[in-house]
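Run log, item B.
One chain of 283 residues. Sequence copied directly from the ordering sheet:
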Amino acid sequence: MQWTVGKVRITQIVEGRSVGSTRFILPQVGPDDVKALPWLIPNFANEEGRLKMSIHALVVETPTRRIIVDTCLGNDKEGRGVSTWNHLNTPFLQDLTEAGYAPESIDTVLCTHLHVDHVGWNTKLVDGKWAPTFANARYIFGRDEYSYWKDHSERPEHVAVFNDSVKPVVDAGLADLVASDAELADEITLIPTPGHSPGHMSVHIRSEGQEALLTGDAAHHPVQMAHPDWASTADSDPAQSTRSRIELFTRFADTDTLVIGGHYGAGHIRRDGEVWRFDALQN
């Protein structure tokens, strides 16, 4: 899938899709809740009321930069908290290359946060060691986000993710730590959206009078636009994540801003009474 925002091109590279297996991340959502929101169907849920989600990266190409935003789960990883995320062998890099973005052509890797499904392809296994996948790129991590996970990765699954997908990049001297509201390019500014993780950031793109918002995991699914208080089980601070969602939805509702989620597709946020809905982009 590909979208254009002024002179910026955004390309989605999907590592995996799921339907309905989302109770572990949004346990509040049952089939009846989904069916009560018919605008979710068919783009974001199926007729049975099961949510559709994806794990994907977004390549943002500006006139001067090639940036990959979030890098999915990665191959050959171990110690993941979800058993099916271990020892993957997906064609992600081949798909990325076939889309016109060979790893060596990427100049920037931007992680909205440092959770397992957003950093995996930061590294790949080379001769038994983890090496940066995008050797010609600078890796952008939020300063607050990195500092938190550097000091708070006691749980085994967190230790594994940090050690195989973050630390090798830092050790290679390829990491840049930035403020959560940093301007990365003429067209790209970060927006602090903490709560899902302590230093979570969303990405605001502006070019030739057009705008896009890459939410990251500020919301895992559009159902949270109707229920912004439904926090994810992975949110480190549910009250703060709710505040971040409300602020984000309020800011971009009823505008022409193209919104693309970290685990769902593109559309526009619209006011719907006291809350919001998500109108899928018709391609």
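Observations after the first pass:
- The radius of gyration is 18 Å.
- The domain at 2-280 is CATH 3.60.15.10 (Metallo-beta-lactamase; Chain A).
Flagged for discussion on Thursday.
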